[in-house]
Fold these 4 entries.
Entry 1:
Amino acid sequence: MPFFVYIIQSQADHSFYKGFSEDVFKRLEQHNAGESSYTSNKLPWELVYYEELADKRTALIREKNLKKADRSRIIALINSNKNLLKG
């Protein structure tokens, strides 16, 4: 079963949040419904990046790597061909 890492951007302050999920679009709905305490105060959120990974372990490792990335690296990733939103 594939897992996904994703990046959402707050439309309130343009900050980024990185996460992983089995269903990116359902997870985005949860963020925008205020179901995540960390993201609930920066609504609304827009999905700006996601990529598919083979399994949960790989997705968790990738998510951890993304959480360490600076803003310029995140923007480069959003604009890259790895972004499934571009496909």
Entry 2:
Amino acid sequence: MSRIGRMPVIVPEGVDVKIKGSFVQVKGPKGELEHTFPKDMKISLDDRVVTVNRPSDEGTHRALHGMTRALINNMIVGVSTGFEKILEVNGVGYRAEVENGNLVLYVGYSHPVVVEPPEGISFEVDVRTRQIRVRGYDKQVVGQVAADVRKIRPPEPYKGKGIKYLDERIRRKAGKAGKV
């Protein structure tokens, strides 16, 4: 039995879950998410607890069991508390700011790079620590937007300049052999 798949998902107060066969809709204070899961998985809601069951021990069913439960949990956590990714801007003259809800990056190009947030995503910049916070209720979209922002100027291995995740470690390379 899947260790993740068999765990129940507790629905907090203020979150409304509707299940119609394999279609799940979750509404909460942060937003609304919906997803259609594989028809083999049996999803049920009893007393504010969502459980996922699989029909057999087949390999594909075992894989779908844990994934389905994890996606439902992410939907419920997202609409109740939300998700956040933190990026850090490193480099002399590199900076970020928020203008009219858009993220504006000054990262060594001849022009500022403007990133427009998709629906449900917000940016917050701490100028003192040079951190960018990407917030939203859909975990997948938050991670994708953070990856797209990082891709604008990924960290380079010699000086470490660029945009990196807060917990990311950059493998540094030595400079020229003659330099001490």
Entry 3:
Amino acid sequence: MTRRFAWALGAAMMAGMLAPAMAGAGGLNLGGHDSGAPISVTADNFTGDFETKVGTYRGNVIVSQGSFKLHAEQVTVSVANGKPNQIVASGHVIFDAPSGTASGDRGVYDLGPRTITLSGDVLLTKNKNVMRGTSLVVNLDSGVATLSAKGMAGGRVQGLFTPPKRTRDGGKN
């Protein structure tokens, strides 16, 4: 039971780290987020395989930390040398922050190279602004995020940006 709890906690912590990085890549405002806040994980079930060192949350998985939430059909945590080394969220992955959303079919956080990859039908939204592609790769060390569109109709990243409306006195709405 203690090992299962440790895996659950590790999965929660790593999924919590996945969410803010995806948000940063989409230009979402992360100011004020407390990465030390408690992390909550809920799912229909959890299975821990001690032989393969893989823990899997399945069914309506929701990982929350403060005002950030990660939703997925499944979140799998692989462990090496007693520590999580890869977190995979699959099945309509959605990250919600107060200022926007990042979504895709699959999200992978590789702890070794410290990269996060969101793939499939990738959609980044902030207010009325939208970006689309098929792969978002975020390097947590360099802070560089790359959105590509290989396999997407036209093979090009798409973006729609709506400037703020100006009031009669020249201020922004």
Entry 4:
Amino acid sequence: MLWTGTDGNLASAIYDASVKVMTRDGMAEEKVLEAVIEEVQRVADVRKEFRTADYFDFSFLRKAREQLKAIGWRP
């Protein structure tokens, strides 16, 4: 909430919508993330435009996946 500047209800709605479409490693496709943002905006009646990068940062996950792949780790 503090990082995104949203209220508790909006942050909760974002989480609830997002958790349903995440993979085991926490990643999600860009189109899914865009749909999550659009749905939350609709529900919360928010008209401001947001990019997925405003809410989702998977850079750490991508780096970790690359490192695990390099050593041959499998879940």
